[in-house]
Design brief:
heterotrimer; A mainly alpha (about 180); B mainly alpha (about 280); C alpha/beta (about 575); A: about 180 residues; mainly alpha; Arp2/3 complex 21 kDa subunit ARPC3; two-stranded antiparallel ribbon; about 5% strand; B: about 280 residues; 10 helices; 2 strands; flat
Chain lengths: ~180, ~280, ~575
């Protein structure tokens, strides 16, 4: 695995995790006390689609762990692992979407959203609560409720903002020789 | 906008002098122990030790006060949430019910529930000083080399180093983009409808993301031109050599981990149960 | 004759994504120990040429090569990036991209770490190289506490640690102020003298590079070499003007005065050029006297403003100045002097601690960013940091949409603004298809659409070649003539001299000068405190024994502007 990582992927992981930290720290939108709509997951989805599953997984893991560490002084491991999980599995569709070709139309949008929604549903509603129970022995109904809320808000955010980011990114990749002045 | 984040605080102390690898190993042992145990005595012992370590490190509470307040607030909310969702969790765990305040059926306050909350809170108090200490006493330059030393491939360790290197740059960039967009009418902190807020956020994060993506190419060119990734291994300018204190600390850390696990699990349960002991 | 170290033979290169080759039939030999400067307008292929030498072409940027390029007699396409990096060390344009370590020592050591050099040996070599680039007392310093010039020196150290034979500098002056640039050039020269390495520099700030001797200047245009000769020979021709590269101002002044420039006159340096005093005097006398124009009504007043950051560091100390309606003013000073801070205070990004800001006599100190933005607009240095929409029209409309203005009014105002900015024909283009200069216009348009009366621009021309510089500045001048007051934060001396009659100099958070640009740029105390340098025109006038050298500079600028408008 080590051999296969290009320098560009390494840099993408490093810079991606830094952006994740900043977005998580400063660009979360408060909707209720201590509850935020995260802009980090749309970004994570973009990076995973561009740079693949390993980059996606590591940006999620490093970014989330560092964000927790430098803003709360402690790391909530169960949710950090979900970020890794989400980044990895969204990254797996990278090849099928082939964003570098510059096309991100209905077919790709549907595929992307189908995948992101199912990956996040599993991540937030299954993986996160189970880890919470195993690691922190928290009450089941509390962590499942939290998981469902996180799933809904993150799936919606990635569906909206993540799709938008990918559409804009794809447009920057397409050849623009068909332009004419009006 | 709050700009406060935890960073390395340079000081002369036995904790600072330890190698980054040692601190990383201790941090991992400590977190594992604290994660797995619910044994009140183990938690109390770890808590005492972490306060001692904190004292030795010469870090003042005032230097990290903003984070502490934040954590305490979060802890309070989490406790309230647990109580609201599962007021009889303690009864379920400890198998007995000593009601001390009759409110209304499900929400009766029991000794067991209070003890369960005490344990959860203790768990936090055990992890927090260790994690805080690790963040503020480890030189970021040394962090990547430590990861590499404990077996993480050096390329991935280096990407962590890049993250630490570029966080301040990206933070500055975020701030100026946010200000420029504010002048054009997109304000993140303004009280507006959620959809509008999301749109405002997108106007700020788009330029941030796309200008940073351009950066990736420049940086990877620079790294390749200077021979990054050519060899199977690499050395680190900032690796601190191991001293006797490091070996000593690691041995103690591992012993503590094993001891706490043995004490916790010897009776087949993660929980210390004061209610059925007699 | 010395041994060739870099040799292009009938070399042609085409990027995979493009239809036309970027380099066409290049024949160029550079010898061991030579110091060569490559100049050319943006898009001429000079960066591609540099990428061929350091191996980014074809190993990172793929494409088709015909002909041959050998470095130390080895064909480059048969090598790889790593072996090339042992022979060629590259110092890139953007120090923040190249400086990847957290501290100075780590960054210099980077190449050695990759070679898995043992710790003690590494520390020793880092120490030695740090001394060479005068950074040995900063080994523990964090990147975030260094100035642009220091970062560049560290980058240089980082490539020299490998003991390469060739040092390649890609626009080394692009991000530096004049005084720091001067220092960098002499450091490069010193290293050249001491180590006899081959030096290849790519740069369009010709006059600044020639502060120290170079052996040859190669001019590239449209992918071809159009001139390859000594600086003295080059200035005797009209190659530079034909390829839109800025000639040194003293050379231009001599030409205006009617002197024919020959290589024998040694025109490469302002101190060595043989001057014809009589012709210069005659020309000077023939020009009209430049009296500063009368001031109009104040539009913006900064009154005893003091500001400190959260960290407690005072950034602005009791500063006062007045900007008059319809002016074009530059604010100059070193990095960290407070010039960006004062502009952020004016637009309300930062709040003053003491003092007031008046707009047309009205106190706006407590107005919000939003309220001020309809009167004063700020254009950031990097357009990519401002652009958040895909299409030009949407980007320009954004500020109005956010203000909830009616759709038909928006359309009208956006189209009007696009016409003023010459962007109307492109209104439905994606912004990513535009050049840097055009993107800059889009960001200016997106601010102008809010109809501010004062426009503040942070380094509007940084890193631009002469053609784009002229394009951007002429455009700003058009806006200025339409009545918009323009304030520019800059350390480009040409910009100050040529476009802003008045300059305010700031040092350590205090105003140290508020005068005509000519007077500021000829005042040694101000120049030293704000990291500028004396313009070569002044030196020329002194050498020609012209009684009022300042007036000479002023007359030259006025004449030069007229000449360029007529072109």
């Amino acid at each position: 695995m080590n051999k296969g990582l290009s320098v560009k992927t390494i840099v993408a992981i490093g810079i991606g995790a830094a952006i994740y930290v900043i977005l998580g720290r400063f660009a979360s939108i408060p909707i209720a006390p201590n509850t935020y709509v995260e802009t980090t997951y749309p970004f994570l989805a973009l990076m995973a689609v561009i740079f693949g599953p390993i980059a996606g997984a590591l940006i999620g893991f490093i970014g989330h762990a560092l964000k927790d560490a430098i803003s709360y002084g402690s790391v909530w491991w169960s949710w950090v692992l979900v970020s890794l999980f989400v980044g990895f599995f969204i990254g797996l569709i990278a090849k099928r979407v082939n964003i570098e070709a510059g096309v991100f139309a209905t077919k790709q949008i549907l595929l992307f959203n189908l995948i992101q929604a199912s990956v996040q549903a599993v991540g937030w509603i299954l993986v996160a609560p189970i880890l919470d129970i195993l690691i922190y022995a928290e009450p089941a109904n509390k962590v499942f409720t939290q998981g469902v809320i996180a799933a809904i808000s993150n799936i919606a955010m990635v569906g909206f903002l993540g799709t938008l980011l990918l559409v804009v990114y794809a447009k920057t990749r397409s050849q623009s020789n068909s332009l004419s002045k009006e | 906008m709050a700009v406060e984040m935890l960073t390395y605080i340079k000081k002369q102390s036995p904790v600072h002098e330890l190698s980054g690898v040692t601190k990383l190993i201790i941090f991992l042992c400590w977190s594992t122990a604290a994660m797995l145990t619910y044994d009140t005595w183990v938690l109390l012992a770890l808590l005492v030790i972490s306060f001692v370590l904190f004292k030795i490190s010469k870090i003042k509470v005032s230097e990290i006060r903003f984070v502490l307040l934040f954590i305490l607030f979060f802890l309070l909310l989490n406790n309230i949430a647990i109580y609201l969702f599962s007021p009889q969790e303690g009864v379920k765990i400890y198998g007995t019910s000593h009601v001390i305040w009759d409110i209304a059926g499900r929400y009766n306050i029991t000794l067991e529930q209070l003890f369960y909350h005490l344990n959860i809170t203790l768990k936090y108090f055990v992890v927090i000083p260790a994690a805080l200490l690790f963040v503020v006493t480890t030189n970021p330059s040394e962090f990547a080399s430590s990861l590499n030393r404990i077996g993480i491939p050096y390329k991935i360790a280096y990407s962590v180093s890049l993250t630490l290197r570029y966080i301040p740059d990206i933070q500055r960039e975020f701030r100026s983009i946010a200000q420029a967009q504010q002048a054009r009418g997109s304000d993140l902190s303004k009280n507006e409808k959620l959809t509008k807020r999301i749109k405002n956020a997108s106007v700020i994060i788009m330029p941030l993301i796309f200008s940073s993506l351009e950066r990736i190419e420049v940086i990877s060119n620079a790294m390749e031109l200077r021979g990054f990734g050519k060899k199977k291994k690499r050395t680190w300018y900032r690796a601190t050599p191991f001293r006797r204190g490091d070996y000593f600390t690691i041995v103690i850390g591992v012993i503590l981990l094993i001891a706490s696990l043995v004490v916790t699990f010897h009776d087949g349960s993660r929980f210390y149960n004061p209610f059925t002991l007699r | 004759m010395k041994k060739p170290i870099i040799a292009f033979k009938n070399f042609t290169f085409k990027y995979r994504s493009q239809t036309e080759p970027s380099l066409k039939n290049i024949n160029l030999t550079i010898h061991e120990g030579e110091k060569v400067l490559i100049v050319g307008p943006s898009g001429s292929g000079k960066s591609t040429l540099a990428h061929c030498i350091n191996g980014l072409v074809p190993f990172s940027y793929k494409g088709d090569i015909t002909g041959s390029l050998t470095i130390k007699s080895r064909e480059t396409k048969e090598l790889d990036l790593f072996s090339l990096s042992k022979m060629v060390g590259t110092v890139m344009q953007d120090p923040d991209g190249q400086f990847i370590g957290l501290t100075v020592g780590e960054d210099i050591a980077f190449a050695l770490e990759n070679e898995a050099v043992a710790s003690e040996l590494m520390k020793e070599r880092v120490e030695r190289v740090a001394q060479l680039v005068n950074m040995d007392s900063y080994l523990e310093a964090s990147i975030h506490h260094l100035s642009g010039g220091q970062k560049q020196r560290v980058s240089l150290g980082g490539v020299m640690v490998d003991d390469v034979d060739i040092l390649l500098f890609d626009e080394p002056l692009a991000n530096l102020d004049p005084a720091t640039g001067k220092y960098s050039i002499s450091l490069i020269d010193q290293i050249h003298e001491e180590s006899n390495k081959t030096i290849v520099m790519i740069e369009h700030r010709l006059e600044d590079v020639l502060y120290r001797k170079v052996d040859r200047i190669i001019v590239i245009s449209d992918g071809e070499i159009v001139s390859d000769t000594s600086p003295d020979e080059l200035f005797s021709t009209s190659v530079l003007a034909e390829n839109s590269i800025r000639e040194p101002l003293y050379v231009r002044a001599m030409k205006y005065a009617g002197c024919r420039i020959h290589a024998k006159m040694k025109p490469a340096h302002p101190e060595t050029i043989e001057i014809n005093k009589k012709k210069l005097h005659d020309w000077y006398k023939s020009l009209p006297n430049q009296t500063p124009s009368l001031e109009s009504k104040p539009v913006l007043e900064v009154d005893h403003v003091t500001f400190a950051y959260d960290t407690g560091k005072t950034a602005i100390q009791d500063m006062s100045f007045t900007i008059y309606q319809g002016e074009m003013v530059s604010i100059v000073g070193q990095n960290g002097a407070g010039k960006s801070t004062i502009s952020k205070i004016i637009v309300g990004f930062e709040k003053v601690q003491n003092g007031t800001i008046l707009f047309k006599g009205e106190d706006i100190t407590s107005d919000s960013i939003h309220q001020r933005s309809e009167r004063i607009g700020l254009v950031m240095q990097n357009p990519n940091q401002m652009i958040s929409k895909h299409l030009i029209y949407d980007e320009v409309a954004l500020g109005l949409v956010k203000r909830g203005i009616e759709a038909n009014v928006i359309k009208e105002r956006v189209e009007k603004t696009l016409r003023i900015c010459g962007l109307y024909p492109f209104r439905n283009w994606p912004i990513s298809a535009l050049s840097f200069g055009q993107k800059k216009r889009v960001t200016i348009a997106s601010i102008l659409v809010l109809e501010p009366e004062v426009l503040i621009l942070d380094e509007p021309t940084a890193g631009q070649d002469f053609r784009h510089y002229t394009e951007i500045m002429d455009f700003l001048e058009v806006l200025n003539k339409r009545g918009i007051t323009i304030i520019m934060i800059t350390h480009d001396m040409h910009l100050m001299l040529e476009y802003t009659p008045r300059a305010i100099a700031i040092a350590q958070g205090r105003k140290i000068a508020d005068d005509t640009a000519v007077n500021v740029l000829t005042n040694q105390t101000v120049i030293d405190a704000s990291n500028l340098k004396v313009t070569s025109l002044f030196g020329l006038a002194v050498r020609a024994e012209i009684a009022d050298p300042r007036e000479f500079v002023a007359r030259f600028i006025a004449y030069d502007r007229e000449m360029r408008t007529w072109q």
